[in-house]
Amino acid sequence: MRVATLSTALLAALPLASAELDKWAKKAGLKYFGAATDSPGQRERAGYEAVYPQYDEIMWESGEFHQTTPTNGMKWLFTEPQRGVYNFTEGEIVASRANAERYVLRCHALVWHSQLAPWVTATNWTKDELKTIIHDHITNVMGHWKGRCYAWDVVNEALNEDGTYRSSVFYDTLGEDFIKYAFQVAHETDPNAKLYYNDYNLEYPGAKVSGAARIVSMLQNAGIHIDGVGLQSHLTAEGHPTIDQHIDAISTFTRLGVEVALTELDVRLTLPATPALLAKQSQGYKNIVGACAQVKGCIGVTIWDFYDPFSWVPATFAGQGLPLLWYANFTKHPAYYGVLAALKNATGACSKTHKRSIPLLD
Ligand code: 9MR
């Protein structure tokens, strides 16, 4: 009896004992390592209900993560589907669990041209009307979660690849003032939340990084509060940047005095997976996590879900997939150990300097 009790206890302790990501992220000087997750009804692939207990165990109980972001539930489409009609149900599913588990909560996303409620683009608004709409959306949505979000992605994906502004109802009506206005209202609504500009393809130097840096400076020069830049980090195994490119890009922002977070990390590959591709994927993860862990001011890493079947990738990129750290059968990718190696390499007295100070193989 006694032996049986002991072994049950040991078994129960196993997942905790093997949980490494958040633990090593903190040893490397980061605030958190986390995974985005969706409310069950919105998960990418239906028919996976049977795995939810195992999924939830890793997401919430394993100790691997201490941060999350709702992948969909806080977006305009869900939170204000009709003008003035607010619905926090989907976002609240993830937010309340995150708060109960004392996870760091990143909240996503207030002003974005995509997953926008159709009514917002259905009318040619005057400038003043659209400002009122932005104001009401931010004050209600951010106000609902006030005090519960470590950070908010205030403006998401406002840039084209060449660093110019993307055409959207917001930019086409208000010009770059829509960004200023959104950040102003956000700071008034929840002065304690960190306010982020969030975009993809900001992980290596180039025109888009310059565009995002221009946004940061524009806000700072206008005396408007901005705290951070989110590097979404949707990367590919076949063509990922080097660690030095990542360090350059991250440092562009930290030099401006704002923090950086990797907000939606995944590294997709072309199917079928081969050992060589999985090794490249692992290197891709290792480079970006290593860069974040080594630059002072890069404060945390969020992977965009952790479980391959719930990734957005297969539905968006034909023939590509397996972008996360856990396979469908809940075994781990080699990239899990790549992430771990990057975090372990970054621990120690000399880490978190602006320059790479300890060797990390590319
Ligand atoms: O993961 C999200 C997926 O479930 C949605 O179908 C998709 C719709 O565009 O949005 C995904 O998340 C996006 C995030 O909100 C912003 N950056 C790009 C992400 C991948 O599309």
Automatic annotation (TrEMBL):
Its EC number is 3.2.1.8. It is an enzyme of class 3 (hydrolase). GO terms for cellular component: extracellular region. SUPFAM superfamilies: (Trans)glycosidases (SSF51445). Pathway: Glycan degradation; xylan degradation. Gene3D superfamilies: Glycosidases. It is found in: Secreted. It catalyses: Endohydrolysis of (1->4)-beta-D-xylosidic linkages in xylans. Residues 1-19 form the signal peptide. GO terms for biological process: xylan catabolic process. Residues 49-342 form the GH10 domain. The keyword Hydrolase applies. GO terms for molecular function: endo-1,4-beta-xylanase activity. Pfam families: Glyco_hydro_10 (PF00331). The keyword Signal applies. Its main location: secreted. It comes from the Eukaryota. PROSITE patterns: GH10_2. Belongs to the glycosyl hydrolase 10 (cellulase F) family. This is Beta-xylanase. It comes from Coniochaeta pulveracea. The lineage of its organism: Eukaryota, Fungi, Dikarya, Ascomycota, Pezizomycotina.
